[in-house]
Amino acid sequence: MNDYFAPEIENSNTVKEFVKKYVSIDKIGIFFPVFIQELTSLGNKVFLDKEDPEIIKEIKLLVAFLEKFSQREIGDVTIPNEFFGNYTRCAIKIIAIKEKRETGQTTSYIEKVSDTISKGFENIYVIGSARTDNKDFIDSVIKSCCEKNKQIEIIKNWDFKGAIILRGETMNVRTYLVHLRNPSIVKHIIEKSR
Description:
Layout: H1 5-11, H2 13-27, H3 31-45, E1 46-47, H4 53-70, E2 82-84, E3 89-94, H5 98-103, H6 107-118, E4 123-129, H7 132-148, E5 153-166, E6 169-181, E7 189-190
Parallel strand pairs: 1-7, 3-4
Antiparallel strand pairs: 2-3, 4-6, 5-6
Helix pairs in contact: 1-2, 2-4, 6-7
């Protein structure tokens, strides 16, 4: 840290700005489960022997999207939850409103996730509280979505320490996330021969 990381941050405003954004993304717990997963997915698709400025630009846009999402207040529906790039297509869907969970109203969530699938998103991250009743509710929605959309794979699900912003205050919470993948729309990027 002292020999490499700190000096690099001090010597580069670009690196410094990215680290600030990464901290915001990591604070709510989506740095590794979403950002790193998206980079991994992109890395598995890209076969280039030189840097492509379009891919670099898209990664910067993905970071900006995740940073903005990480700063959203609970209940704010104006912040975008879908990122549709040329190479990376992902969406984050939040489940559940307490009243819908308590009454078992899964239909609107099933429709939202299924609509996201039909729009051509490769990775969909369904996220919500890790309370047992909410995890069960999310799992019920996911099960119905997978039955309705046979091509969808559940990559992994886990709960982790995250944070939410409520009335300007950041609160630590346990978060549950399910990563869905639509392999039928994966496109590999291959450099054109010269």
